Amino acid sequence: xxxxRNRIGVxxxxxxxxxxxxxxxxxxxxxxxATGADLNSFYRPLAEGPCASADDCxxxxxxxxxxxxxxxxxxxxxxxxxxxxxxxxxxxxxGQSIETIDLHPEGKRRSGxxxxxxxxxIIAGSPASEGAGLLPRARLIAADPYYSSGAGDDxxxxxxxxxxxxxxxxxxxx
Length: 174
What we know:
Elements: H1 22-31, E1 42-43, H2 59-63, E2 78-82, E3 98-102, E4 109-110, H3 114-124, E5 139-144, E6 147-148, E7 154-157, H4 158-170
Parallel strand pairs: 2-5, 3-5
Antiparallel strand pairs: 1-7, 4-6, 6-7
């Protein structure tokens, strides 16, 4: 039972007590002064990426990006992403400027690295690799709030995506 003595903060997870509807719980939270509450939805990557090996990681061709255009761009940008784990040892990412932040929930298995690695390679893959990225000089900060569900998919809960946003903002990407 919630009372005004309970401290409810941003990103806090609450469970519905038995026989209480979502509408009733939200009304009770408003009565206690909460400014908002939402369902803790799951987020999943749409599909595994094409970067299982260096041979099938051709991000420039995948999206029709002109060859060599990333090297001509201005100052190296800092790009922050929220995705599954990034394998920084992948041939397309070796030697690139990538900081990873592991935020998978405690007690859960780490996410797979297929999707996150593919996205990282598309953005910042080494020009010396088979998978040269769009902006190979970019500094990439990759936060992984995903976990392996055990049902064959990776997922992140809304509250963990918010934690990832907070962690990335704390790194001051600009």
